[in-house]
Design a protein that fits this description.
The chain has three helices and four strands, in the order βαβαββα. The protein is α+β, with helices and mostly antiparallel strands. The chain starts with 6 loop residues before the first strand and ends with a helix.
Amino acid sequence: MSAERPFVLFTQAQCAACEVLARMLALPLRGAFDHQIDVLHRQERPADFEALAGRHGLARTPALLHRPSGELLLETGSLGTVKAFLQRPRT
């Protein structure tokens, strides 16, 4: 994972909500945040996924993590909520 990317998207295969979030990021948001998000796919990188998910107490996907603050967004079904999470200034 790239240290300069502040967000991590936790995803996995056979996850309808993960597919919805991926489409949301690609279509309505037009990939505007792609350069800020590392995608961590459970089946493609299981060790990395389990280590980071375990560190943050993550038990389900999809989820977005803001690395610097450790803040997790678990309710990813709303475009407004996802966009606000990605745009929110943090101190």
